[in-house]
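User: For my dataset I need records formatted as: sequence, then structure tokens, nothing else. Please produce one.
Assistant:
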Amino acid sequence: MTPSKGYYRQLLNEFPEVRIAFTHTPIYGCRKIDAEPFIKVLDQSADIFAKFYADGLRNGSLVTIVESSVEKVYANNGELYFTT
């Protein structure tokens, strides 16, 4: 049995900026961060799905990421313009 999409947010609610993603899916606009602190939090949890996430982070099928900030954003009448 696998958890529903985004379930990890309940387990890591003190880290709202952190996301857990599958490594087999390309993700743009994010950067990988060290998973060790989050594995420790998951190991201490009594939730039934915490082991699923901790094991996935250990074996490399999951990764912890945060969104990359956009340096230059221009707004005009409700529209956003991003530079690359």
